[in-house]
Specification:
single chain, 390 residues, mainly alpha, Receptor-associated Protein, 19 helices, elongated
Length: 390
């Protein structure tokens, strides 16, 4: 028996074993309570974007190696640690064997696979370029994850400094300042205004902490709910982010990179332009950009060009609109979109470094001002009382 025949027999045995395991799943589910007690309680969430990226990367490699789609899905699913994602992948295999296309099977799981993902796979099925399309999806998902990580890393340091500042001020007001109150007792008329303010804040935090801290937490949760769950609040916050001095350049570069990169990938994949615009609006990440892409969608559906429709919104730089117009006229819109998105991806990295380098000293100065104000409020009355005594 040749080596290839041994491999095929081994694969057949694996498939038979998998079918047996699937048939026994219903029986095993009746004893899941006992199994959970033996194995311990386990909380499992749905597949993350990193899981989707790893799945797509493995699938691209296996398809490029000549392995069939069903066998690839079975092999990947059997090796997954997350039970929920393994169930999804094996369900994809079962649906494909039942006669559905890969894109139709993916569409049955909209909470896992995005419209962009499904449409690119559908375009690959029409063009017969599944391997290259999966590789494009890997590159797209990888760049999206890299962009998200850059933005998150840029916000980590300011958040740490802010938490340290709040902790330090709270410690000074609740534990350090009360020790000086006995020194200043009976001499309140001699205290300067900064000291009186700090003393009032200290007494308020010590006497009414059970009101102040829940009020602060409630205000933060209320702001989050207003800016994330209500259309008016979300629109206001998205508009504000495009006007704030430090966030303006960062957010604008992020939204332009994400929109044009998505549009370029879909256009080069052969997805119809109306579907491309609809998906781009969905992933824009900002209501102003989302409304812009939806407006362009309506105008393109009426027979108009993208560039003139985009120009009236004023969200895209003029040179971007001009390049898109030249791409439409020359029939190279996909290449132009790819070049613009690559440029703004590099621009985004530069903006993140610039904003981070500006935020760090600003946060340090603010923290120094707060601590210095508290220290001055303590030292000033001491000097004032010593001068009165002398």
């Amino acid at each position: 028996m040749s080596f290839l025949e041994k491999i095929k027999n081994h694969e057949n045995q694996q498939r038979q074993s998998q079918r047996s395991q699937t048939a026994a799943a219903a029986i095993a589910s009746t004893t899941s309570g006992t199994a959970k007690k033996k194995g311990g309680f386990k909380v499992e969430f749905g597949p993350s974007k990193k899981d989707i990226l790893n799945f797509t990367n493995q699938l691209a490699v296996m398809i490029r190696a000549g392995i069939s789609l069903q066998d690839s899905l079975e092999s990947i699913g059997s090796q997954m640690e997350k039970e929920k994602f393994r169930t999804v992948v094996l369900d994809l295999k079962a649906r494909i064997e039942g006669g559905q296309s890969f894109s139709q099977a993916l569409a049955e799981h909209p909470d896992v696979f995005t419209n962009l993902y499904i449409n690119m796979i559908a375009a690959a099925e029409i063009s017969g370029s599944m391997s290259s399309m999966l590789q494009q999806l890997v590159e797209y998902l990888d760049q999206e994850a890299d962009t998200k990580n850059q933005v998150i890393s840029a916000m980590v340091y300011p958040i740490i400094i802010a938490v340290m500042a709040v902790t330090c001020v709270t410690f000074l007001l609740t534990f350090v300042l009360p020790r000086f109150l006995t020194v200043f007792a009976g001499k309140e008329h001699l205290l300067p205004a900064p000291t009186k303010i700090i003393m009032a804040m200290s007494m308020g935090m010590r006497n009414y902490w059970f009101i102040i801290f829940p009020a602060i937490a409630g205000a933060i949760m209320g702001f989050w709910y207003f800016t994330n769950k209500t259309p008016m609040g979300k629109y206001w916050w998205d508009k504000t982010k495009l006007k704030l001095p430090l966030l303006k350049s960062l957010c604008r570069s992020l939204y332009i990179t994400r929109s044009l990169h998505t549009m370029g990938v879909l256009t080069n994949a052969g997805v119809p332009i109306l579907d491309t615009l609809s998906i781009t609006a969905h992933i824009a990440g900002n209501m102003l950009f989302e409304n812009m892409w939806k407006g362009i969608f309506e105008q393109v559906r009426q027979g108009k060009k993208i560039a003139p429709s985009m120009e009236q919104y004023g969200l895209m730089p003029g040179n971007v609109v001009q390049m898109l117009q030249s791409g439409e006229e020359s029939g190279t819109l996909g290449d132009v979109l790819r070049d613009i998105s690559d440029f703004y991806a590099r621009e985004l990295k530069t903006v993140i470094k610039t904003v981070t380098s500006m935020i760090e000293p600003i946060m340090i100065v603010l923290m120094g001002v707060l601590v210095g104000f508290i220290a001055m409020s303590i030292i000033l009355p001491i000097f004032k009382m010593s001068s009165v005594v002398s």
